[in-house]
Amino acid sequence: MNNWRFALTRRWFTYLGMAVVFAIACVLLSRWQIGRNDETVAANTLMTRNYAAAAEPVSVLLPNVHSFSPKDIWRKVDLEGTYLSDKQMLVRGRSLGSNPGFEVLTPLKLSDGTVFVVDRGWLPVGSKQDTPDVVPAAPIGPVHVTARLQASETILPGRSAPAGQIPEINLPMVASHVGATTYTGAYGLLASESPAPATRPIAAVKPTIDPGPFLSYAFQWILFAVFGFGGLAWALRQEYRIRNAEDPEERVRAATRDRKSRAKAPTDSEVEDAIIERADVRNDAQLISRS
Predict the structure, then answer these.
(1) Which helix (H) or strand (E) covers residue 21, if one does?
(2) What is the average pLDDT across 147-158?
(3) Average pLDDT score over the chain
(4) All residues at 6 or more sequence positions from 283 whose CB lies less than 8 Å from its CB, including other chains
């Protein structure tokens, strides 16, 4: 007679409770991954749209020197002014691929006297020193610049830089170096400048659209929750078979499972084990015969 009464014990209710808690945790983690996926998709969509948008005068996207809306990141602004090459700074710890280097920040003085910070590109660490071998000069005189907006960076504690360099593109820090009214809400990655110099730092590349692994992770967490209940069912079935091993019906089922198991073709690992075992036996026999 089948006996499932053991499944109604406190021990198995505890196991069930653990499986439920595990499943809830997996569902919450899955929802978190879906949220991260949605954020990534939204950021990629914004970047793609803004990257293709037409350039606007800086006064349209930045009404004052302190303003910047995150929804305008990567938008292009048109600027007219003169580079303040004597106020140029290098930003440390900037890599291109796996190569360490610097970003070159050159303040641009606009016609109204305000200053907009332009990131003119990347330069590698020098061949013999921890500074670029050559910093290409910015154009002299009036210049037309198109740049893509980026937000000011936060100062990280404990970081420092030698004179003429800064650890982050923190615009209030740059403004104190420039000594003039400077845009502190956003700076610009150089897209083009006219007249164009003979050489310039390596231009910033368009970011790669990558949705990330978040959606696949979300599905994996749901599978983990299902596996938890599957493992509970397997353990329950195994204990049932052990407890009811002498039950006539269970003995018949056990015999059927045993026949099916023997009828299965051997796996590759079983074949290899058999070959190794026969080889060992043959070697032992040869050793015995020689002795």
Answers:
(1) helix 10-52
(2) 91
(3) 88
(4) none
Q: How many CB atoms sit inside 10 A of residue 198's CB?
A: 6
Q: How far apart are CA 181 and CA 178, in angstroms?
A: 8
Tokens for 162, please give them: 């030698």
C-alpha distance from residue 87 to each of 129, 137, 174, 175 (Å): 22, 12, 9, 10
| Residue 51 to residue 148: CA distance in whole angstroms | 8
Residue 10 DSSP SS3: helix
How confident is the model over 196-207, as a mean pLDDT?
90
Give CA 43 to chain center in angstroms: 13
Tokens of 163: 């004179």
Q: What Cα–Cα distance (Å) separates residue 134 from each residue in 108, 130, 168, 197, 200? A: 21, 12, 21, 14, 10
Residue in 93, 130, 90, 129 with CA at minimum distance from that of residue 106: 90
Residue 28: exposed, middle, or buried by beta-carbon count in 10 A (0-12, 13-18, 19+)?
Answer: exposed
Report the C-alpha gap between 107 and 187 in whole angstroms.
Answer: 10
Of the pLDDT bands very low, low, confident and very high (cuts 50, 70, 90), residue 286 is low
pTM of the model: 0.71
CA count, 13 A, side-chain hemisphere, 228? 19
Nearest to 47 by CA among 122, 170, 149: 149
What's the pLDDT at 137? 93
